[in-house]
Amino acid sequence: MKDLLIIDDNNDGNTLLTHHLTHRGWIVETVDDPIRGIERAKSEKYRVILVDLIMLKMDGIEVLSTLKTLKVKSILGVLSGMDETKQLARKAVAMGVNIHVTKEDQVDDTIFKIEQILRAST
Residue 16 belongs to a domain with what CATH number? Predict the structure, then answer.
């Protein structure tokens, strides 16, 4: 089982997070296409899946809805910008998303949030 899948069509912003998690021993996979991300989530098992809310081909709410329909067992979380995605983030939380991090969060804060949810789920 892999630790984390990040689905974000702009992976440049996730390079730092991926680097820090990999350095801590996490197995991280990033996918820059939401449809490919859904396919990966269907074919692999991940402890956590983080989905960007704003993507060109399919928004994060659609991706989360599809993952829930497929009954993916991973802990689901969303990545968002600060202001432009507040409504989408609220919608994701209402759908039962476990983790909400903003792209402006410090890497250590993001890792702390993920690890906190993982500890609570075991």
Answer: 3.40.50.2300
